[in-house]
UniProtKB/TrEMBL annotation:
It comes from Sungkyunkwania multivorans. PANTHER family: BATD, PROTEIN BATD-RELATED. The chain crosses the membrane at residues 449-468. Pfam families: BatD. Keywords: Membrane, Signal, Transmembrane, Transmembrane helix. This is BatD family protein. Residues 1-21 form the signal peptide.
Amino acid sequence: MNIIKRIALLIFLLSTGTLLAQVSFEAKVSKKVLGVNERLRVDFQMNKDGDNFTPPSFANFKVVMGPNQSISNSWINGKRTFSKTYSYILAPTKRGKFKISQATVDIDGKTYKTLPVSIEVTAAVDKPKDPNDPEYVAEQNMHLIAEVSKANPYLNEAITVVYKLYFSNNINVSNVNELDSPQYNDFWSHNIEIRRKMEQGTFKGEPYRYIIWKKVVLYPQKSGKLTLDPLTLNITLDVPTNRRDFFGGRIYTQIEKPLKAGNRTIQVKALPEEGKPANFTGAVGDFDFTVSTSKDQLNAGESLQAKIIVSGKGNLKLFKLPKLNVPSSLEVYEPEHDEKVRTNLGGMQGKIADSYTLVPQYQGKYPIPPISFSYFDPEAEAYRTLTSSELIVDVLEGPTNSGAVTNRDNLPTTNNKKVVVSAGDQFRFIKLRPNLVSMKQTAFFKSRLFWALLLTPFLIIPIAMFIGRRRKQRATDITGNKLRKANRLAKKYLSESKKNLGKKETFYEAMERALHNYLKAKIHIETSEFSKEKIVELLKTRGADDRSVKGFISLIESCEFARYTPASVETMKQDYDKAVTVISEIDKQIR
């Protein structure tokens, strides 16, 4: 019985705590740092109707406007949402660090208090800001930040730049366009393909939503102070105003605002001259080095592969591999270069190789001398040198190079003389008794084959004329051909997205892939070049009109943002139809 009572008491306490947790009463300020000549907006917001609201004393501030009371009461999917707000506009009376003390209100017979809010008042600023100005609200609630992994790298050491767009819960972003992209002069750069999505985080201690807009890996190509150009975005957003509609809901206004991530300066350190190996070619990172052959025994005239491989993490695409030195009795062909390198936020990783084809001319044992490879390790701040071991190529059968000179290890040394040796089968006898068999003569004239060959052209001619006429008619129908081709391409690339109608995220991901694959097929653009400016430039160069290009870009932007906002099946159907139309139009226009 005691157990039952305890369980009942626990359920009661949990339900009571849940009910209490549903009531909120909090103070929100337009900013926490302001100049003495600026204004501050304070909102005291509750989610249940209350009585006996008592504001704080607002010490060290003067009430310029307020209190303004606003009520929002709405029903969404059968669920009621209520909000009641008391707003004040304050002007600071002096500089310093102050607190907005607690306000109180009675809700359902209980007294609730807001938490104190710390405010810092600084010296006067150049332009006092109106807290109700939409431009000012957007400026205070949206930030574009360039995060650099390392501000003082070595020459050819990888650094990463991540551009993040932060915006608070007070505003809604409806569209983002890239106005100006950084050029990254004096850097080797690589854009990392990302799939943008909304994430929760903090900015200067405050809760914010953010989108990672761009990730770039950079390798500085010269030392000294290098400047990163800023990234500029044009953002369309909905900003709340101080006005309310008929039902008490807050009225939003839509504005466009350019936002720029400020210039960043990178101090690049030169590689030290002290201890630099003579064979150093600019490799910076952490590497392994191997030299190997596909065979160690073979016959003269056969071939083998000798590979020089550097693997690891570093600037793999930005330096040359050491050369292979072999005796002259081994024919050497120009090496084939192979790269298997991937680039992520950590920089380049993988391996590069030069593959040499060697063909021995004579029998004997031929040494491939050791090869050295040097690189700079930025973590240890020191040069490293790796040396391969000597390899022996043993040629078992073949002619002997009588001009070769052997060393003390009985291995042939380099000698440019080559001996021409008779192969022993240069002369062949003609067969005197060929045993030829005569062919029986058959009558061809008036045979079945004769009549078949004679009449077949007369049967083929009318068929060919009919087919040719149909093909000519179809070829002259330029408009019809373009339309049929465009519709086939549109349906081909958008078939996957059509299958996923109703599944929002899967649908828009499939549509985005379809648009990208269409561009790859039609204008031969690589994934690393997928920027809106590049797409617009290539489409216009190929003859697409402004309306079609604008429609294509708006589809890409819809795919980027629609995955993170509500979308009905009807909206997805409209986007699909729009995509089919736009692709068909562009395919008819481009050359």
